């Protein structure tokens, strides 16, 4: 099934340890977007290069003690923004509180992220199937918040060739994955434009992570 009726999306298990919390962040979406705007004044969006030389379709930035970067030296977390030479902007308390609440709702107590990665997807941009494995601590979950345009999230298994489930993520949805699902493959299909509702012309995704 590609999409789900609202009443079944409030808490939808994707696999053991992974759950969609439909609309969990909707009430605070405007405040989250405002925080993103302030962060990106200090650490602007940029397109990283990936292994092989291509450009990532999603523009990225980060906040917190660490940001994820990709360059000629590979994929990794660093404490200083290579674009500005300054530390990443602090994680706003709003982000910390939401991440902790969402993790708890998904069954993960005591989640305190060190990093908030921010992806911006213009229409046509997506993210290929991948695992999140650059964090040195894999015990903590990843908390992922969707804002703006809707997009199909691909949720796979521990192996790249495992069958993927497609779930449409809307403005204010949160997905949490950890435990047995922490290394599952996932991706985002190219975002389509011309949607109504939020007035935003792109999709934002915030992921909160523990790095070390
Ligand atoms: O945009 C999303 O929903 C997922 C982002 C993602 O997979 C990542 O940042 O690793």
Automatic annotation (TrEMBL):
Its needed co-factors are: Fe(2+)
Lipid biosynthesis recorded as keyword: no
User: Signal sequence span per UniProt?
Assistant: none
Q: Which UniProt keywords apply?
A: Dioxygenase, Iron, Metal-binding, Oxidoreductase
PROSITE patterns reported for this sequence = FE2OG_OXY
Q: Quick check: keyword S-adenosyl-L-methionine in the entry? A: no
Origin: domain of life: Bacteria
List residues of the Fe2OG dioxygenase domain: 111-212
UniProt-recorded name of the protein: DNA oxidative demethylase AlkB
